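hi support,

uploading two proteins for the ticket. first:
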Amino acid sequence: MSIIAREKKPKGGGQSPQFKMRIDPALKEQLEAVAAEEGVSLASWLKELAREALRQRGIKPQG
């Protein structure tokens, strides 16, 4: 799996808006474990997955 760099500060110069979602606790535990293996927070890991999904669709991620 690729190495994902931890984000030092929010892009755009300010605090990013929060995005809340409900997931099964067992799934969250699995996702947190994979993110920890990569050395990043779950939020950073999910953001990088979303950016990669956009790139695969030919869309340049903003932020």
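and the second one:
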Amino acid sequence: MDMDLPKDPVLMLSIVNTELRDYYPTLDALCEDKHVRKDLIVDALKSIDYVYNSLKNQFV
């Protein structure tokens, strides 16, 4: 399943963290399942000063 992420990084943050919390054990698993490039998510969320924390499995 392809995932259409919003261009707005704040909205993307909400969607990605919800998916990670509810359905995926890692960011890699989410990206693989949804056919989304990990670097696109990481770069977009970095632009609003959020980074992926693998221990919490969320962007913080």
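thanks. also noticed: Strands lie at 52-53, 58-59.
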